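Example record

One chain of 367 residues, shown exactly as stored in the release files.
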Amino acid sequence: MKAGIVGLPNVGKSTLFNALTNVGALAANYPFATIDPNVGVVPIPDPRLDIIQSYVKTQKIIPAALELVDIAGLVRGASKGEGKGNAFLGHIKDVDAIIQVVRCFEKAPGGEDITHVDGTVDPIRDIETIELELILADLQTCENALPKAQRNTRGGDRDAIARVKVLEKIIPALEEGKPARSVEFADPEHQRAVRMLSLITTKPILYIANVSDDDPNGEGELAQRVKAHAESVGSEMVPVCARIESELSELDDEDKAEMLADMGMEEPALASLARAAYRLLGYQSYYTAGEKEVRAWTVPIGCKAPQAAGVIHTDFEKGFIRVECYSVDDLIEHESEKAIKEAGKLRIEGKEYTMQDADVCHFLFSR
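Predicted structure tokens for this chain:
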């Protein structure tokens, strides 16, 4: 699961990115924490892993991960070469979702004035500015792709024919200032053609309201405006105070819990962000548990068992025979895999089984 963080200058994007990717103790059992200076892999908090580990003793816990990419170069006019111009395109095209950080504070902690790039704080204007730059970037991509696709249709190329039909519907929408995701296609060939274009505005977007430390839960007027906008486009808003998250990332568990209580917060922003990202992308988790490790794996809702096995290793999908599974709730009720089996709760499922959230699985496959 990979998300790109975007935002205008001075909205707290880099502070938030650094806080979220400074995972500290969470990363102790994770195989990597940072890929390069602008990419971080963040373990997703998941209490069900601790529940499983309390009954199935393992050497380590490996959570699912959210890969965050700090996308640079977005200012007004970026699609025309302003700022870092289109340098952001290569990074943002590879992500599954876009997380837009929006400034929802007037002054920084301590009363320090941080000048907004547009002179005043207006989160909806900022959202519209970013979206327009992404739309213009997509429009340029589509206009460049159309002539080549039209030439290739002369030889009867089915992929080119589908691409032309898709482009001829998407380009007018982009010209009207609408994102590509607003154009729907029922034909599977057309849907595939859209995916092959790798357009930025087909990606789902999640909004982070970067709030002041006296409004950590985003109840203020600016954050609520972002929430209303998010709901109007079928998305979500997650309130985050980048300064608080930066401080929390430096604390041990005990001090972190105390600070959260003092701030009137139930959990760090990462947990809320991860859940919102899961909902946005239509993902769920299943688990594997053994002597070496208990691990969370991310799959799309509706995923079949062989494809879920393939997330672990492609050989598991190719040679899939069956999956033995039970739920985390079964484990809580019966307290061991042996007791689950004796109670008749261990399920044997085949290739058509649709994975359920919180399944604990043993896959059987042939080599």
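Notes: Residues 23-35 have pLDDT under 50 and may be disordered.
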